[in-house]
Each structure stands twice: as C-alpha cells, then as structure tokens.
Write a structure and sequence with these properties.
It is a single chain. By secondary structure, the chain is mainly alpha-helical. The protein has two domains: about 80 residues, Arc Repressor Mutant, subunit A, CATH 1.10.10; about 140 residues, GntR ligand-binding domain-like (Four Helix Bundle (Hemerythrin (Met), subunit A)), CATH 1.20.120. Helices cover about 65% and strands about 5% of the residues. The chain contains ten helices and five strands. It is globular, with a radius of gyration of 20 Å.
C-alpha cells in the first residue's frame, strides 16, 4: 500500500507516523487519541482542524471526522469561537470509568470461568510470573504493559466479542489509570495476588467467585487512585485520558 508521509513544522505537536490512504479519519483519530492519552497533547491545548490537517499533510475531511469522534468520546470539547480544546479529567470521570470497568470485566471473568479451555490458562499464569519477575527487579515501568496483557487474555476467555469490544473502548482510560496504581509497589504486589486468586477460581470454574474477585480487584484500584488524587500525590490538572 502506498503511504502518505506526514510533514510539518509542528511535528513536535502532532503524530509523526506515516498514514495510509485508506481510512484516514480512523488513523487520525487513533494517533491523536494516543497523543492525548500519553500527555503529549496536554489538557487545555487548543485544537484547530485546519492546523491539524496542515500539520499531518492531509485534507480537512478526515481530520473533521476524527475530531468529531474525539469529541464524542469526551476527549475534546468545542470552543464558543471555533476549534476544540483537550478536556481534562475530574474525579467523577475516574470513578465512572472504574465503575463501568468493574461491571464489564467482572462479567467477562464470569463468562471466562464457564467457557475457558484448560490449555488457555497457561498464558495467564505466565503473565503472572512475568509480572512477578519485573516486580522483584523493581522494574515498575513494565508492570502496566504486563498487567494489560493479563487482563486482555482474561477477556478473550469470555468468548464474547461484543463484550470485549466494549471493554476495549475504555482501553486508553484504563491504561492511564493502571499506571498510577502500579507505580505503587504495595498495590502491584496486591494486584498480582488478586490475579493468582482469580486464576485459581477460574480453574475450579467458580464463576460467581471470579466475578466477585474481579469486581473487588478493580474497585480497590479505584479507591487507591481517588485517594492519591485527594492527597495530592497525583495531579489530574495536567493530564488527560
């Protein structure tokens, strides 16, 4: 597939990966969303469609499509005089994300306990051990990635593509919050302990217990993040999903 390279004087502001000619709107959406989630485009940054299009070397049509999707997801909000601004987080956003996640993922765990194949447990157990090795080496930067991979393997055992898609719609928000949780050694240890308990219950096909363990695991994370924000250990004024 022929590629269209991004070119701009503002490459420090917008993504610099090349874009394929197909589905430009989706590609712009994914790249700008990633930049927002990772804090490369900060809260309060004004976003103007024409400037994004020029920066990325493309027409305004796919940018307009992407911006509307970003607005629908709550990542951007329109300004009265035109353009958009990157929306910041507040505690209610965080609470809602955790609560929705607790419902969706606990149901995925319930389904997983009923539907998994014996050979499918090994990759989850390997992720638990990989997480433990990184924790033992105090390599906290790797924990969010490994933890995410564990949870995605767990979702897959549910065999519910619709449910998995709904969870994945929160993927970026979850990853942002997961990094806060796993920056604490104590929370990281507790997280892996929870994962061991979840796997033990799945093996016994104790679906209701798995559902409860997953829900408790996620809501404990919510309490930790909210407390860290209230204590001033985490600032949400300069971060966004």
């Amino acid at each position: 597939m022929e590629k269209q390279e991004i070119h701009s004087k503002r490459l420090d502001t917008f993504p610099i990966r090349s874009l394929k000619r197909e589905n430009l709107g989706n590609q712009v959406f994914e790249q700008v969303k990633e930049m927002i989630v990772k804090g490369k485009i900060p809260t309060g940054k004004r976003m103007i469609e024409s400037e994004i299009a020029e920066s990325m070397g493309i027409s305004r049509t796919p940018v307009r499509e992407a911006v509307h999707k970003l607005e629908a997801e709550g990542l951007l909000k329109p300004l009265p005089k035109g353009g958009y601004v990157v929306r910041g987080l507040d505690i209610s956003d965080i609470e809602e994300t955790f609560e929705i996640r607790s419902i969706l993922e606990s149901f995925a765990g319930y389904l997983a306990a009923n539907r998994y194949g014996d050979e499918e447990i090994l990759p989850l157990e390997e992720k638990i051990e990989e997480f433990q090795r990184s924790l033992d080496r105090n390599n906290l930067k790797e924990l969010a990635r490994i933890n995410t991979e564990f949870h995605e393997l767990l979702y897959a055992l549910s065999r519910s593509q619709r449910l998995i898609k709904m969870i994945y719609n929160l993927r970026d928000e979850i990853y942002f919050l997961r990094k806060i949780i796993l920056n604490s050694v104590d929370m990281a240890r507790l997280s892996n302990k929870d994962h061991r308990e979840i796997i033990k219950a799945i093996k016994k096909r104790e679906a209701k217990k798995v559902e409860r363990l997953v829900r408790d695991h996620i809501l404990r994370g919510k309490e930790f993040v909210i407390n860290e924000i209230r204590k001033g250990n985490v600032s949400i004024n300069h971060h966004s999903f």
